[in-house]
Amino acid sequence: MSRAVLSLGSNLGDRLGHLQSVLDGLGRAVLAVSTVYETEPWGVTDQPDFLNAVCIVDDPARDHWAWLRAGQELEQAAGRVREVRWGPRTLDVDVVTVDGVTSDDPELLLPHPGTPERSSVLVPWLEIEPEAVLPGHGSVRSLLMARPVEDRDSVHPRPDLRLFRKG
Ligand SMILES: Nc1ncnc2c1ncn2[C@@H]1O[C@H](COP(=O)(O)OP(=O)(O)OP(=O)(O)O)[C@@H](O)[C@H]1O
Ligand SMILES: Nc1nc2c(c(=O)[nH]1)N=C(CO)CN2
């Protein structure tokens, strides 16, 4: 069994459609999906706002590498072009954590090292898994509480935008 937490982001083109393409692509493996959040960009701040969401997936046939590959294939299908680090993209799928797996391979760092500083991941993750723990870092709730208030406040729920699980 391989349960994973995936972070989804888009700030180019049909942003909601790109997030939905992940749920369509992963089908019955998706156990839960968060509300969609409109988030102010971090890293490179001079770019359009992102839509972000988090989903929890489980598939006995997939290991951590298979989750990475699945995410990359979905990014390709959304027409993603790799240009600027932290720059605009049609779709970004990050593997946040995979149960029982840590990795220091640069191709697949687990847990994803950016997570403790990213309210755009912590807020939606906490919503769907209130007792979540980021291995090596403590509870997601405490990580979020440690973020500056202006950072937490840059993550805005968009209940008018809905994602649907298939299957
Ligand atoms: N946990 C992970 N999830 C997704 N990609 C990862 C992970 N760990 C390492 N990578 C590697 O990161 C590389 C660059 O990914 P990407 O272009 O999405 O980075 P980014 O989104 O700009 O920055 P960040 O990784 O900080 O979110 C990929 O080639 C991938 O192999
Ligand atoms: N708010 C927000 N900002 C970002 C995001 C993202 O998903 N959300 N992804 C980036 C590239 O990894 C760079 N900046």
From TrEMBL:
Alphabetized UniProt keyword annotations: ATP-binding, Folate biosynthesis, Kinase, Nucleotide-binding, Transferase
UniProt keyword ATP-binding, yes or no: yes
Reaction(s) catalysed (UniProt annotation): 6-hydroxymethyl-7,8-dihydropterin + ATP = (7,8-dihydropterin-6-yl)methyl diphosphate + AMP + H(+)
Biological-process GO terms, alphabetical: folic acid biosynthetic process; tetrahydrofolate biosynthetic process
EC number of the protein: 2.7.6.3
Pfam family, one: HPPK
Domain 7,8-dihydro-6-hydroxymethylpterin-pyrophosphokinase: 85-96
Keyword Transmembrane helix: no
Family matches, as SUPFAM superfamilies: 6-hydroxymethyl-7,8-dihydropterin pyrophosphokinase, HPPK
Span of the signal peptide: none
GO MF term (any one): ATP binding
Biological or metabolic pathway of the protein: Cofactor biosynthesis; tetrahydrofolate biosynthesis; 2-amino-4-hydroxy-6-hydroxymethyl-7,8-dihydropteridine diphosphate from 7,8-dihydroneopterin triphosphate: step 4/4
Gene3D superfamilies: 7,8-Dihydro-6-hydroxymethylpterin-pyrophosphokinase HPPK
NCBIfam families: folK
Name the UniProt record assigns to this protein: 2-amino-4-hydroxy-6-hydroxymethyldihydropteridine diphosphokinase
Annotated organism of origin: Amycolatopsis acidicola
